[in-house]
Design brief:
alpha+beta; five-stranded mixed β-sheet; binds protoporphyrin IX containing FE; 417 residues; Cytochrome p450
Length: 417
């Protein structure tokens, strides 16, 4: 595969979605549409030790798999398309994303109580202060790199604060997050493991301090929480921290930059939001649907079974292409149109439902709402000012740079960092 632009002539039997050439321009929606109608599910053969996998591109199938963890395990084969994901399978099993019930349920409960929509709403004014500061830092110049200056910084500052990591260390979190994202993209579990080992070393100092002086941050919660009467082990704390750091950063960042890109490319849609903050929550759902930053996760069948009538054998891997599910015409009419006033945009950006449904969805939506309320109010005429670059990945729909320009404006914050 060399070109990613024309998928109409491809022989679907030969399609291999671990080949990153298909993802050079982002998720291959034209190909997903063909797979949905001509090869559902699609058998993705692989060479070497990897046995291949079934690709599911229909929203109803993705939902059915997601909601049946007893049949479709996250622990057995990991959550990536092959055994070579962002971290080794045995490490993934130590983090809720890669656990099955009942262990998953017990560990997820440790954090579930912290991420409720009600508790998240209490963070709104702190999040607005961060957004104000980020816009203040660029508004007088009339230009910035939207990815680096805005989209990266907002979730990074929010999650660093929640975790209890000093803000001066947040670029280190950024670097680890990028390394995990790159490890997922390049199927290099050793790279991911290396980042997790560094995180473990970094956490030693912080956890020692929190054991002596617990606060209300997430690190304190992780080290004091009890699951079935036992404290989390040191690796469990490290991997939970790593998951929250990664999940809290990369996804929200990519929705913000992909969402801003969609608004610039569709100015009529942007105009619907200017001076109309009430329209923003719906626009955020449409951005999530459109960008769908987590492209897929997988499960492994625990027994011979079927997915809405499609036979799957015990031990076979099933990949749920959430990006495809979010563009399924059975979920939304005209799915390839970006329409911020679409009535109730439906999507699978946070997964297909079921027990692993994104724990941080309320936080992500809050960050994105506040960000776009402030951006549409203060920088209504943002335009592209240079080449947009992206990470070539079949897992993250990720922009790495998006230079923009706009009419300079006034600072609104105190200017005190
Ligand atoms: C736009 C932003 C986000 C998107 C698109 C997103 C997407 C996802 C997806 C697709 C899953 C897997 C769902 C499944 O397997 O069924 C997931 C799980 C998860 N997300 Fe998010 N996420 C976002 C933001 C966040 C934030 C801000 C946090 C908070 C720190 C977070 C924490 C988690 C955790 C801990 C899990 C694992 C849940 C489990 O296995 O039970 N996410 N997310």
């Amino acid at each position: 595969m060399t070109s990613t632009t024309d998928f109409t002539e491809l022989d679907l039997d030969k399609v291999d979605l671990t080949d990153l050439a298909y993802f050079q321009d982002g998720p291959p929606h034209q190909l997903f549409a063909r797979m949905r109608s001509e090869a559902n599910p699609h058998w993705n053969a692989l060479t070497g030790d990897e046995p291949g996998f079934w690709s599911f591109t229909k929203a109803t199938d993705i939902a059915a798999i997601s909601k049946d963890p007893a049949t479709f395990s996250s622990a057995r084969g990991g959550v990536f398309a092959t055994t070579r994901g962002a971290a080794p399978v045995e490490v993934l099993r130590e983090v809720i994303l890669g656990m099955d019930p009942p262990r998953h349920t017990a560990q997820r409960n440790v954090m579930q109580v912290v991420f409720t929509p009600k508790l998240m709403r209490q963070k709104e004014s702190a999040i607005r202060s961060i957004v104000t500061e980020l816009i203040d830092d660029v508004i007088e110049k009339g230009e910035c790199d939207f990815v680096d200056d805005i989209a990266v910084e907002l979730p990074l500052r929010v999650i660093a604060d929640m975790l209890g990591v000093p803000q001066e260390d947040r670029r280190q979190l950024f670097e680890w997050t990028n390394r995990l994202s790159y490890a997922a993209a390049t199927a290099d579990p050793d790279m991911g493991l290396g980042a997790l080992m560094e995180i473990s070393g970094y956490l030693t100092g912080i956890t020692a301090d929190r054991k002596a002086n617990p606060t209300d941050d997430l690190v304190s919660r992780l080290i004091t929480a009890e699951v079935d009467g036992e404290r989390l082990t040191e690796p469990e704390v490290t991997f939970f921290f790593g998951l929250l750091m990664f999940a809290g950063n990369d996804t929200t960042r990519n929705t913000a930059s992909g969402g801003m890109r969609a608004l610039i490319e569709n100015d009529a849609e942007r105009q619907k939001l200017i001076g109309n903050p009430a329209a923003i929550p719906n626009a955020i759902e449409e951005m999530l649907r459109w960008v769908n930053p987590v492209v897929y996760f997988s499960r492994t069948a625990q027994k011979d079974t079927d997915v809405n009538g499609h036979q799957i054998r015990e031990g076979e891997r099933v990949v749920m292409w959430y990006s495809a599910g979010s563009r399924d015409p059975e979920l939304n009419a005209e799915p390839d149109t970006f329409d911020v006033s679409r009535h109730r945009p439906m999507h699978q950006a946070f997964g297909g439902g079921g027990p692993h449904f994104c724990l941080g969805n309320a936080l992500a939506k809050l960050e994105l709402r506040v960000l776009f309320e402030e951006l549409t109010r203060r920088i209504p005429d943002m335009q592209f000012a240079g080449p947009i670059t992206r990470l070539t990945s079949n897992f993250s729909n990720e922009l790495t740079s998006m230079p923009v320009a706009f009419t300079p404006g006034q600072r609104e914050g105190t200017g005190i960092a």
